Amino acid sequence: MRNLHTLNCYRRTDRDVIAHYGTTGDDRFGVFEVPSAIDRQPMIVIASSGDGWDHVSVSRRTRCPNWREREQVKRLFFRDDETAMQLHVPPAEHVSCHPFCLHLWRPLNCDIPPPPAEFVAPV
Fold it and tell me: In this structure, which CATH number among 3.40.1720, 2.60.40, 2.40.50, 3.50.30 belongs to the domain 4-111?
């Protein structure tokens, strides 16, 4: 994950963030408001790195972020040489705090294996 200070132009530092998290964040944690590349409406992004994972959640007020918006967030918060993934866990393990929030994950202690390119598109 990028050093989150590089994204300070999007970082939220308002009293609601401080009241909820006790801080406005640092180089490994923060709450950000990023305008969507689709319609310039705000996307709320919460990013953290620790306990073996980089994690970024992204939400919109009235709908889930679409592919282009998730890709925008991935490019902002992760370096170009990093792979991140969205996981679809079994229903019994599903946890939701917001109806329109999606998550990107990157394990810190191993690489995410990519599928063979020919499985994705004809070569």
Answer: 3.40.1720
Low-confidence ranges of the chain (pLDDT < 70): none
Cβ atoms of 52 and 101 within 8 Å: the answer is no
Domain boundaries, the chain: 4-111
Give pTM, 2 decimals. Answer: 0.93
Q: DSSP labels for the chain?
A: ---GGGGTTTB--SHHHHHHHSS---SSEEEEEEE-TTT--EEEEEEEEETTEEEEEEE-SSS---HHHHHHHHHHHS-TT---B-----GGG---SSTTEEEEEEESSSPPPPPPHHHHS--
How far apart are alpha carbons 24 and 15 in whole angstroms? 9
